[in-house]
Amino acid sequence: MASEVAAQDDIARIFAANRAQGKVALTVAHRDGRTRPERLHEAGSLRVRFPRSRTSALEAVMVNTAGGIAGGDGFEIELTAGTDAQITVTSAAAEKVYRSSGPDARVRVALNVDPGGSIAWLPQETIVFNCARIARSIEVDLAKDARLIIAEAVIFGRIGMGEVVEAGRLVDCWRVRQQGRLVFAETTRLDGAIAEKLREPAVANGGFGIATLLVVPADPGLVDMVRSLGADFCGEMGISAWNGLALVRFCAKDGATLRRDLSTVLTALPGQSLPRLWCN
Q: Alpha-carbon distance 52 to 265, whole Å?
């Protein structure tokens, strides 16, 4: 018995030693009429790059050199936009979450926006493979007159390859605070028989892609504007606004449709454009 326990401990240590870990901590500031990186810390397999921008805002591209996310991996991103700083954050490619033999992969995102600042968190799609397990949290702390856009899209399997995500675990927890007061909280949880649940009319009605877009601040006029684009949508879309924020839900049969519908709304938002990598 002791030898079996020791062998299991050895396997656990080897597994842990081979898990990818990464962290990026970035602070940007508004100087000389432009937003520029002020402080940057990179560790493990996460990197951030800054393509040249023709505007005063800054664009940042997150790169995961591990080539994907697997069970037991852990990643942290901390981003602060200083007073009047404007930054759009995306990813170098769609992030792939591979099957896990047991433990969850964990991703933690913390966004802080100072007065007059703006963060648009617009990573490319997350592709979840069969039997993948991931727990992600997004924590946001906003100043009173700060601006926030978050868009997260999840695709279950590569549709063109005939893949089906029969089982797995996805937990996506969002918390947004403004001046320390909680203004938005939700948790998406798909666990166990994912394909079966996605077929439910009240979940995805057979769709393989879902996305959520949150805009703060927002007013009811944004709802009317987005609804006026109804003829341009190929999948399902719903929007509502309350207490100074707007939330848009998307559901589509495939990733291409999901991206097209999400892009339609993002490009219609005042003062917002798509990251250049979205257009390649």
A: 25
- Under 8 Å between Cβ of 152 and 122: no
pLDDT of residue 53: 75
Residue 201: CB atoms within 10 A of its CB come to 7
Q: Is the omega angle on the peptide bond into residue 275 within 30 degrees of 0, that is, cis?
A: no
For residues 214 and 223, give the distance between their C-alpha atoms in angstroms, rounded to a whole number. 12
Element (H, E) at 180: none
Whole-number Å distance between alpha carbons of 212 and 248: 6
Q: For the chain, what percent of residues have pLDDT higher than 90?
A: 70
Max Cα distance, the chain (Å): 68
Question: How far is residue 279 from each of residues 54, 215, 263, 275, 276, measured CA to CA in Å?
Answer: 16, 21, 10, 7, 5
CA angle, 74 as apex, 161 and 112 as ends, to 5°? 105
DSSP string across 53-102:
-SSSSEEEEEEETTSSB-TT-EEEEEEEE-TT-EEEEEESS-EEE-B-SS
Is residue 205 within a helix (H) or strand (E), and if so which, with residue range? none
Residue 97 CB coordination number (10 Å): 23
Sequence spans of domains, the chain? 25-279
Q: For 23-44, how does the pLDDT look when each residue is reduced to its tens digit (9 = 90+)? A: 999 999 999 999 999 999 999 9
Cα–Cα distance, 124 to 149 (Å, whole number): 14
Q: Which residues of 108-119 are buried (b: 16+ CB within 10 A; e: fewer)?
A: bbebbbbebbbb
Question: In this model, does residue 17 exceed pLDDT 60?
Answer: no
pLDDT in tens, 223-244: 999 999 888 899 999 999 999 9
pLDDT reading at 129 higher than 60? yes
Find the mean pLDDT for residues 122-134: 95
